[in-house]
Amino acid sequence: MDIDFELKNLLSEIDILKEKWDLCMPLSEDEGRMLKEDLEITQTYNSNAIEGNTLSLAETKAILLHGVTIEGKPLKDHLEAINHVFAMRFIDKIAFNTDKTLKESEILEIHRLILTDIRPEEAGSYRKANVRVGGSWRKFPKPEEVKKLMDDFIDEMNSKIGKLHPVILSAKIHQGLVFIHPFIDGNGRTARLLMNLTLLRNGYPPACIYYNERKDYYAALESANFGDTKGFEYVIASAVKNSMEDYLSFVKVKNKNAELKQSVKSENTPEPDAFSKDLQNRLGKGKGWDR
Length: 291
Hints:
With 291 residues, this protein is mainly α.
């Protein structure tokens, strides 16, 4: 397929969905709770499962909503679920600050939260050893090169704010961090959270890379690591589009004149927390940009 043509069309579809999403703001309190639950459970399960976590979706939900321990499952898997939610709440907290630039301190804090009580000596720190990734032919930078590469990466990404479509920028941030592989563990989860931080900062809901899509995701990421980035950008844009369509099924249009029909899911959700209270006023704030 003509990837440039298909990607351009996909971004146009996303722009239309973004307009519809903006019409749904602000979310009601019930919608905020519902979306918060879906985000935390779905994102946590899939992002961890991609990295080898053995918890099922139902088990992840039981841990996060009810604090249960799953018999026969490693403590590490439980901690990964809990840590991912704390990292999600952190990016929600910082996403709507006035300063929208990517910062090293934010990247390191996301990583610290992901590896808390799992690899505490390495949580929030750049790696001090070489890394290899199973299934990848790429040789990653040496430890002594990581700091300079990360500084350059952050500067480059910040220089593209307002110049690239936010979805493309989020894909480049994701791929760029994985390309450097600055951490001994947790690079993929950190990259996906940074991707979603970028989306949130531009008024989009977070995108989910689903576990059952991991083969296409990894293949596109591997190609991007060798210079063919368009395929990976298409994968990320597809995830954004699919996630937005899913989230739009949760919520109602607030503009009575809008010609948009929504089907609202009927599940009840448990107690709200500070995360969901703020969510309803946060997810619709984005301005124009150049592609």
